[in-house]
Structure formats: C-alpha cells, structure tokens
Amino acid sequence: MKKLSIISLGILACFQMANAQVISSKKWADIFSYNNVISMKEDNGKIIAAAENGLFYYTISTGEITKLSKANGLHEVGISAFDYNAQTKIGLIGYQNGSLDIVTPDGVTYVVDIPIATGYNGSKKINHISITGDKAVISVGYGVSIFDLRKKEFNDSAFFLAGGVYEASNEATIVDNKVYSVTNTGLKSHEMNTTFPVFSTWTTDVPGTFTQIDSDPVISFSSATTAYIFNNGVSTPLSQTFGKVQDIVVSSNGIIVTDQSRIYTFNTNGNYVGTASVGEECNTAIRTGSKIYGGTILSGIKDETNNAFKPDGPYFNYAYKLNLYGENRILVSTGGREARFNTPLINAKNPGFYYFNGMQWIYSSYFIGQTQSFNILDAVADPSNLDEVYFTNYVYGGQGIYKMKYNSTNKDFDFTKYYSLSPPNNFAYRPVGLTYDDQNNLFATVGFMDNGSMSVVPYDKTADNFIVKEIAGLSHGVQKALYYENLLWVPIPRTNNFLVYDYKKTPTNVSDDTAYILTQASGFPTNSGGTVSVAIDKAGDAWIGSDTGLRVLSNAVTAIKEPNPTVNPIIIEQNNLGEELFRDSQILQIEVDAGDYKWISVDGGGVYYLSSDGQRTIKHFTKENSPLPTNSITDIKVDRKTGKVYFASYNGIVTYQGDVADVTSGFGNVVVYPNPVVHSNFKGKVTIKGLAEKTNIRITDVAGNVIHSAVARGGYYEWDLNNQRGTRVASGIYFVLMTNEDGSDKATAKIAVVN
Length: 755
Fold this sequence. Notes:
This protein is mainly β. The chain contains one helix and 70 strands.
C-alpha cells in the first residue's frame, strides 16, 4: 500500500507524497535504453546522467557504471528533468506525467503530483528543475513551484496567468532569494516573498522568447540562437551565435553552451574560450577537470575522443514484440498499428529492430539515417542459423519482408534481400508476423490484401521467395501465427473470427491447404471486434484473447476439426456469483510458462499471473505496484529454462525472475526463500521452487508431526506458514518432505521460522 499524505495548498489542487514507496525488488531488472542523456551533474569524479527511463552513474577514474531505474528504486519512467546538489547529495527527478522522485543516500521518495492551479488543464510535464541549497524551483506548464528538499514538501507556487491564458516556465533558477524564469515572452523574476504567487507582481527583466537559463556564480540565459549574461539588470550577448541552443550550464569553471552540433565554452565574464565536439548531437554538456563530456541523444555520455559511456541496452526504449533464442539471444521489433487495424503507428525515430547477441545489444547501421520508413511488427531468426534475421515492414510504400545477416566481425547487420509481396505500385499486401514450424519452414501472415482478404504466406526455400495465396472474405487484418501440432493458429483482429490453418506439412503446395474458422457463433463475445492473441498450454487447450474477453478452446487440435467447435469463457466465483474472467477486456498477449501457469497482458490493466486453470490470480503487476513501465504490455515472453519473464512495451522492456523454470517430472534444484523467515522482516509466504511438475509435500516439526500437507503443481509452492488448523506455526525448525507424482524422485528441505 502507498503511504499517502494529502496537503491543502489553498487555491491549488492537492498533491500526494508516497514516503519511500517500494515497488521494485531483486527479481526485477530493466532493459532500458540509456542513450538519450537529457541532463548531467558531476560529484567528486562521478558523472550522474539522467536518461529517458533512469539515472546512471559513471565513475571517471575506474570506468564503473551503475544504474537506477524503476526496476531498482525509482517510481516512474519518462524522465523530463533532473538536478543534483553535490553538497547535500540530493537529486530531484521530474517526469513527463508531473510526478517527482527525491533521490537521497537514504532512499527514494515519490511525490505523486505537482501543485495544479484551479482550471489548469495543460500538460503536467516537469519542464526543468534547478536546485539551490535546500530549495528547488520546478518549471511546468503553468509557471513555477518551489520545493523544499529538506522537508520534502512544496512551498509557494506562481501561476503565470495573464488574460486567462497560462504561460509555461521553460526553465528557472534561484539566485540568492530570487527566482528567474525564462518564458516565451521574456526573462521574468521575483523575490521569494509573500507576493511571489501573484503573477502581476513579477518583473519582466528582458522581453523576448527564451528557452534556457542557469546560474552560479553568474546568470546566463538564451533564446534559440543567442546566449546572454545577465548582470545588474543588464543582458549582454555572448560573442557567438548558435544554430540552436540545447542547454546552458554555468559553474565556477565557466559557461558551457551546447549547440546542435558543437559545445562552446566561455569564462564567467562571457569571454569566448573555445569549442569542443563529441562527434554527434548533444542535449547537454559539462566540464569535469579539463575534460568536456557531452550528454548525447544516441550514445550516452561521450568525451572529445569519441569514447562513449553508458549502460548497455537497446538503441531506443520503444519496443513492440520480442523473440527469444538459445544462447541468450533476443530480437525486438518496434512497430505498431493503431487499434490493431491497418494504420501503422508513425515513429519519427524510425527505430527498426534491436538485437542482443548474448553479450551486448547491437543496433544495425542499416537503420541509421535510413530514408525508407520502417514499421517492423516482427523480427525472427532462422532457427538453423541464428545469424540470419527476417523482419516484416508494415509501412505504406515500403511494405515487404527483409532479410539481414549478422556480421560478427563488425557487430552489425548486412542487408541481404528485400521480398515485395505486392503487385507493382500496390500499397497493400502488408506483412505482419513471421513464424517457423518444427521443420524450420517459414510462414508470414499478410493483411490488407484484396477484397477484404488476408493470407498465410509460406517461404519457398528453393525459389528463395514467398508464395502468396489469399484467404478471401475473412478480414483485412491479421496477427502473427502461432505454430502448434502442424497447424498455424492465427488471431484475426478486425472481425470476430479466429483462423486455424492446416498446410498439410507441405508448405509450398498451397493447393491442398485447409482453413478452419472460429466465428462469433463459436462462442466469442458478441461485442468483440476481433481476436488479438493466442497461446496453447500443456493440456493442448488454446487460450484465445479478443478485444473484449478471453476464450478457451479445449483439446484444440481435435476440436478445431470437428463440426461446430465451441470456445468457452473461464468462470470464476466472486461473492458466490459466477463472473467471466476478463470480461470486456482486451487481451494483448498470453504466454504459458514451464509450470503451465498463464501470463496475460490486459490493455490498460497490467499483467496477470494465473494458475493453470485460470481460477486463481497468483500475481497482478501494474505500473503502480511494480516496475512495469506502462499498464499496456504489448508482448510477454518466458525463458522456460531460467523462468525469466520479459515484458515489452512502447515505454521500454523489463524482466521479472519467475519461480517456475524448466519443470519436469523430477526435481530440479530445490530452493526455499526467504530462509530463515524472520517475521519482523518478512510478512509474506515462503516460496519453494525447483519442484517436480506434480509434487506431494509434507511439512513436519522436529518431532515428526505433520503440520501442513499439500499437492503442488507447476514447479513451485508457496507456504503461508500456517498449520493445518489455519494458525501460524511457532518459532522453530521445520522439515519439508517431497516426492514426485509416481514416487520415483524425492527431495527434502529445512525452514527456520523466527516469530
């Protein structure tokens, strides 16, 4: 639970603070991009850099890099502002959604919301933060607020309201007891006194449109192309003009102006000293000792000798679908479609795909500076040669399938071939997903063909081309196919249908193929606009997610070939009444782990971890109670050997170390945690993992009395430390005696309980 306190601020709306709220654990890790550095501060030989989804710390002398994100302490993603006081060791992070994190040596405190003026409906994004001593001035869309870092509470706010229109503070700084703010109408200032909140009492020192400001020991501010020193009410332009000022940093070492292409240095009198470059565009720059470091958009921190320093990760945070391969390889696609229909989501960064080769993340130079637009909905590796990658491009005009080959020497991808599936000058025939069967035959699903049709398109290895055959009258839309038992299971997102495609084990002979169709008459929700996701569990049941609910086709391979197959909802009991599980919810993804438990992503609802039959919710992760970066997770993949779960989203990728890994009929490495169980430190259940697929469990005291027994399925069990009467056991040592289903394998463990 959040520990919240609500403080009234007169005409302001209230804000909420969660005191040291913890939503992360050692089970979570991020796979975020730290390339785009928006702010940097230096503290005793260590550079603290703020990227889009976290901070990272670079120790110059040792090269050590550590990171802090939502996976290990922060509470949000989407960082928009950051400042740090090296004397007090306090940092303040501002987010796109208007929340704040206060980072201190004692932990991280979450400020849920900024003060908001009555009637203000604009963006709550934190534009800029500047710390002076124990005070920080926070620039937002309505003006500025003063935050007391020692008390961790807001003081006065000034709403820049004139003529009924709010004016944003682009940036602000505190000098002595006075706040200076740059806006689109001028450099404005006011003493922090009783009239501070009254905008009509603020002074416009310099009229104009200004974007950047910093101070200590002097004040420097800028427009887009000119930087100034402000002294005793007089502004003096610096001697250089700029293409576009990205940032100004003032320190005792001088003034640093970061331009689009170069970094300019001046002394504190405003005299030009020189220029520096790190070889690419920067957001900001600082001087440490005699060296200039740039905070780049694409490469983390870089010095003047072109060395880059950052945590390893994908090129960008934006992710859509991912595929896992042996040897710890990962392929991430970055496309998307509006409402799962035909219109590709336009991404100005044109991201392509990301590749992890088992050691580091690789981004293909093919996508850098590429004029061809990409909307890559899927990227897969050939199982027989993981260095060969195929990806689908869904975007208008460049639609088709591309083949790339990984070059291990250059750690890059070489373009190999483009497969156009459409007739000349046709903007249709757009491929969505790619699927391999167990014989390494490749199939593509293709949407937006002719006359309301889609297609399952096999790859002809001999001809090195794809064979297009329309499945008419079903839907323009299509999802990626799932291969299971010589059949392709294909969600149809634009009509209330689901396709099962039998290619008769002859991929290139499309004349004998059979299409089985599930329709609304088969039992899909009557208000459904289409099916979105599918997974098949160990029992052979197909779990099908639609945009308005979940359905299960039992004994799917047999049932689909029978007349009038029927899908059914899962009914759970709530308050002695039957309720349909996930009724009216869009099921973005379904994944089955090694224990037959189900991971289900609900659009806007986070991720549910369910028992094998769906009757019990074991965990429910949301962005509010976990490191998930959003409540709409676009893909889930489970590494069944390790139990690690990957969650992809448009806001980045995170992982969770699950308890179920490589479950077989016998025991694996049985682990009990926490152990010992000290009640003052831990109030939850004890987890026993590494179990057999079905495990008979008896827990005894030291005298041999059975105090708890159970049957565990799926490779792990959680004990609530209660005996068979439902009361908590006494302090002591307890023995866990376990056998698998047929008694052929046994395991034991000890648990120490301290109440």
